[in-house]
Amino acid sequence: MSEPPEAKAQVEAPAEGETPAQSKKGAKKAEAKAKKEAEKAKRAAERLAAEAAQKAASGSGEDVGKDNYGDATIEAKHINAERIYLKNLGKDHVGKTVKLRAWIQNSRMQGAKMAFFELREEANWTIQALMGVDEQKGVSKQMVKWAGALNSESFLLVEALVKEAPEPIKSCRVKDFELQISKLYVEAKAPAELGLTLAAANKAISSFEDTDPVQGMKDLSVTEQTGGAPSASLGTHLDNPVMHKRAPLTRAIAKVRMTVRKLFAEFLDANDFEQFEAPCLIGAASEGGANVFKLPYFETDACLAQSPQFYKQFEIAGGAKRVYCIGPVFRAENSNTPRHMTEFTGLDMEMEFEEDYSEVRNMIESLMLYIFRGLEEKCSEQIELIRSVYPSEKFLLPEAGKEVRLTFAEGQKLLREHGPEEFRNVSDDEDMSTPQEKALGALVREKFGTDFYVLDKFPESARPFYTMEDPKNPNITNAYDFMMRGQEILSGAQRIHIPELLEARMRRKGLDPASPGLKEYVDVFRSAGVPKHGGGGIGLDRVVAWYLNLPSVHLACAYPRTPKRLLP
Amino acid sequence: MSEPPEAKAQVEAPAEGETPAQSKKGAKKAEAKAKKEAEKAKRAAERLAAEAAQKAASGSGEDVGKDNYGDATIEAKHINAERIYLKNLGKDHVGKTVKLRAWIQNSRMQGAKMAFFELREEANWTIQALMGVDEQKGVSKQMVKWAGALNSESFLLVEALVKEAPEPIKSCRVKDFELQISKLYVEAKAPAELGLTLAAANKAISSFEDTDPVQGMKDLSVTEQTGGAPSASLGTHLDNPVMHKRAPLTRAIAKVRMTVRKLFAEFLDANDFEQFEAPCLIGAASEGGANVFKLPYFETDACLAQSPQFYKQFEIAGGAKRVYCIGPVFRAENSNTPRHMTEFTGLDMEMEFEEDYSEVRNMIESLMLYIFRGLEEKCSEQIELIRSVYPSEKFLLPEAGKEVRLTFAEGQKLLREHGPEEFRNVSDDEDMSTPQEKALGALVREKFGTDFYVLDKFPESARPFYTMEDPKNPNITNAYDFMMRGQEILSGAQRIHIPELLEARMRRKGLDPASPGLKEYVDVFRSAGVPKHGGGGIGLDRVVAWYLNLPSVHLACAYPRTPKRLLP
């Protein structure tokens, strides 16, 4: 049986109807409400009609197929046949009756006696299946009619005969085989209209617009409700987590994310780092009071950790030579940009060193290169798919032995001498702005052919109080940033392990060493001798977003948290 | 050179002086304050004297050793010799000059010309080292005096000659070799008196008493300040994180903990589970409103997640067949017991199933057995060490193929028929109390020879709204607990994947399906067909505490959070 001509209409329909509405909010709200109510009524009517039809069919006493289809949402149905998975389907299966579970990706009736389906397993294994009336074989007219009326994204239990496709089926991933359905039960139903179609979920977002109220799901820039438009806003994606997640695009990004996380742990495990868990609830803001979430905690207040910095150091002080931790960190920053979130995942490490902090810096450099090379190897398929939606240039890495390490002063000199006009006067004593970073990234790419490099020896003013100054020059520090496509991806340094020095540096920065949280921190270094150490922390979300050149860090994360979004 | 007789005095001194004070709080406070101030003054005087002595020595112009010792806390000192690690030390090193970094575990002077040290590397690699005046070799009288006055737990850079020990050194782990020191620099200093000695840190806690105020470090049951008592309260341990962590006991527990975590991920990775990250900040209390931390969140409120339950299900709904996550969960419960914490680590998994939820139950059973068997294999040394401090019986596992799975009703029957008198009337329709659980655990151990078993088919009243009822009997559910030493360690179930059923069950439990958080949850199941699924969640802290039979779950955790403790 060859591919029916209209089978892929729903998924690949070109843009039709309105572009995202730009009209005033009031009008949009009213329109959306009216549309919603109309749809609700329509759906209710459809449901009643379908139920009546099924009742009539099964009640007539003439349905020879009545045991071969129907509802299996609660009472399980069982099929006694070989369980197959589409990715393993081969010539050996031809002529066999098999069993599978799959979503309806598309379906249509051809006349009254034949239903066509595209069935989907996992993210993107699809196969063509058909069901034709055949009373001898227990496939009744009622059964076909019922099956043809099932909604896309319903989840099915299917018995079918595997057949060779007479010609390759272009619309499906399984091209050489098709299924002739003999039994079909619905294990979970989908609604008549989806909040976000799979096709739209798999396209680049149309805008960064998100919901207005934190508690609501009322994205007004919905372009999908009418089924016509080709893409949806970020808000529509996030309000429809199920369909957003079913898109191969979303799954590919998730795979890249979790691979970064795994490669991070893998490298550090192999280099004798011990994992530990830092707490989220802490008694005082660990790194200054800005951007800290506070909460009532029994008779006092607690803060949410902004980083595991102090705890990594406590582990080193406690005798672990090398540690890492992976966990959530929080920033109460009211920034509604594609670069900000209030909760993100920190990948943090800390280690003793022997002679010089460059041991730490070089360890982190090797770690990052391991991650980037691992991504190329383990996620090439996913990266290619993501690039087809969100284009990006290949992420250039330095040749082994030719890693690029510039001092901050060298970087500034490069900017002054070869950068854009506006950066001809940048200073060695002040931190860089984002545009400066990007300009320097472009210069480094041009000059050294890499998108990844290290900037070392930051000025004192640019680093927190626990950063060790260069013993030879107190205006610069033993601190480094790691850069990706011209943006900072990791910040790290040698830490101060001498309590007197730590207190002096706190005072220089205007902090009180006796204040809650800081006192306990300094006490740790006073309580016993703590070896010299340093480390760094990576924001997982940013690594993923920037490696893939995603337009928003919110796309790199399963459940992004912003000032305007806490649900679902 | 043989072992000096008093070398191990500080670490292994037997119990002397007071037992933990039981007197009234006011008196204790005053006493503690006075003691603290006296100590402070004493320490300051000592410091001044030591500095003056060193200054005099180095200023005399006669110190032939002056370049071979001193401060290296900021300006690094470098030694040009082979870097050795104690665990690798062997006969090949004898006669060689080597370099190492280590803590002073103990030291003492023998006359004015000889200093003895026990040096420690990592948690428990110790070696005897000595430094005798030898002006020819650049070891001056001043140098020996200075070195002999260094405090225990200072961190050193050492150059030394490796020698064979004339007789085995009993007090050190390295028994056959000793070091003759030629250079010694202090990279980090320790105080004259430790808040907690290593010996005490390595003993069982003397009491569960913790600090009074959340923000303070004023544990009043300190038994260590005078150096005499053999053990310390939980509060003293937690107020002295550095010394607490340096104890091999603490490190052994941490190793067991992180091994459970790793084995969990390892088993699930091998069984095609995908890891994901659930958010901590959520817009509404996910599982009823009790025991939820709330915080101001820009223009609204946020809650801290009590479990990743909803998010695991969203992942399954989104097309992942099997998922797991590892992360912090929070309970705002004002319980000050050794069993409660406000933040702990959840190990959670969820999976689609095909025919029956027992597929999920059996997967989790295999997972737990994998973890327990892995612990025996990978942590036998640590478990033995922990047992020497906190005794526990061997954790009995069922033979392969003889796993114990009881229904809740069977468990209750066992209790009624063979349990203690007071449980002769337990009902099949009500959840068990902790004493009932423990009694049943004892019966199962006696009857089946295992400390680990599954209790299945819990009564409806005992389970949350999202638990699937048995389709054949709505009074029981497709829900199970996993038991360890008679205590619940994992709770899990088949979940409801049908939105109408979910709403009905919410109403039955007195919840409003339209309330914030619940509405978005039900919407997920309405938005597309979601396959049948189930899962479970383990509290990592409890698994560790109960496997090791620790007297408090707070000992299983690096930074326990309780209503009274948020620092350090």
UniProtKB/TrEMBL annotation, chains A, B:
Entry's EC annotation: 6.1.1.12
Basic and acidic residues composition bias: residue spans: 28-49
Residue ranges of domain Aminoacyl-transfer RNA synthetases class-II family profile in the record: 255-568
One Pfam family per UniProt: tRNA-synt_2
CDD domains: AspRS_cyto_N (cd04320), AsxRS_core (cd00776)
Transmembrane annotation, as ranges: none
Database matches in Gene3D superfamilies: Bira Bifunctional Protein, Domain 2, Nucleic acid-binding proteins
Reaction catalysed by this enzyme: tRNA(Asp) + L-aspartate + ATP = L-aspartyl-tRNA(Asp) + AMP + diphosphate
GO cellular component terms, A-Z: aminoacyl-tRNA synthetase multienzyme complex; cytosol
UniProtKB keywords: Aminoacyl-tRNA synthetase, ATP-binding, Cytoplasm, Ligase, Nucleotide-binding, Protein biosynthesis
Region (Disordered): 1-68
Biased composition (Low complexity): 50-61
Record-linked PROSITE patterns: AA_TRNA_LIGASE_II
Subcellular location, record wording: Cytoplasm
One MF term in the entry's GO annotations: RNA binding
GO biological process, one term: aspartyl-tRNA aminoacylation
Family, per entry: Belongs to the class-II aminoacyl-tRNA synthetase family. Type 2 subfamily.
Stated name of the protein: Probable aspartate--tRNA ligase, cytoplasmic
Species whose genome carries this gene: Pseudomassariella vexata
